[in-house]
Amino acid sequence: MMNQIILAGFGGQGILSMGHFIAHAGLLDGKNVSWLPSYGPEKRGGTANCHVIVGDEEVGSPIISSASVLIAMNGPSLEKFESLVEPGGIIITDKSLVPIKPTRSDVKLYEIPATEMAYELGNATYAGVIILGKLIALTNVVTTENFEVALRSILKPSKHFMIPEEMKALEQGAQYEC
User: Fold this and answer.
1) Residue closest to 53 by CA, chosen among 61, 45, 43, 44
2) 157: Cα separation from own chain's centroid
3) Do the beta carbons of residue 77 and residue 58 sit within 8 Å?
4) Which of 116, 121, 172 has the alpha carbon at shortest distance from 144?
5) Which of 89, 164, 171, 173 is most buried, judging by how many CB atoms fall within 10 Å of its CB?
6) pLDDT per residue as tens digits for the range 130-159
7) How far apart are CA 98 and CA 12, in angstroms?
8) How confident is the model at residue 62 (pLDDT cuts 50, 70, 90)?
9) Residue 13 has pLDDT above 90, yes or no
10) How far apart, in whole angstroms, are the C-alpha atoms of residue 36 and residue 73?
11) Element (H, E) at 168
């Protein structure tokens, strides 16, 4: 199985980190992975997206022309990338920040008010982890155990105190009924 995931939003939302966490956890799971970040020169507030491929087969190219999953953290990202999702694919949006719906009916849509949920948890940065919880629950792209190991490997030690709360956020996203 090959999961080809596009994550997209504004710079500062943690888009590149989200992709990095999934790619690293995929490596820990013994999968073949690719992580290709892309962002504008303005970073925060500009556009940011990344292509992540995780699967059992070798990754031929890090560029995704047909995605199995799109994670859109804002409306412009949904508009830009929804056409790349293969029929029957998955689109996950942050309902708090994406006021529109896909124009297509041949994909599965999961709308999660991730930013609102993150504020309720006391930290807006958890929105991305909430979304990743739904991704993992829907696709089994990585294990939650290795996701936590990836957090410990990638986050600075000064941020490790946040990991228990991030794992709670991951679980909330996984269990959210859309």
Assistant:
1) 61
2) 22
3) no
4) 172
5) 173
6) 999 999 999 999 999 999 999 999 999 999
7) 16
8) very high
9) yes
10) 17
11) helix 163-175
Is-contact 13 127, C-beta < 8 A? yes
Place of tokens 């739904």: 134
**Structure token digits, residue 103:** 């124009």
Q: Does the predicted TM-score (pTM) go above 0.90?
A: yes
- Please identify which residue in the block is written with the tokens 């999968």: 31
Closest CA to 97 of 72, 134, 61, 69: 72
Please give the sequence-ordered ranges of beta strands (E in DSSP) within the chain, or none if there are none: 2-10, 32-39, 47-55, 67-72, 85-94, 108-112
* Residue 8, amino acid: A
Q: How far apart are CA 154 and CA 118, in angstroms?
A: 21
Position of tokens 């941020």?
159
The tokens describing 111, both together, are 């709308």
Cα separation of 51 and 34, whole Å? 8
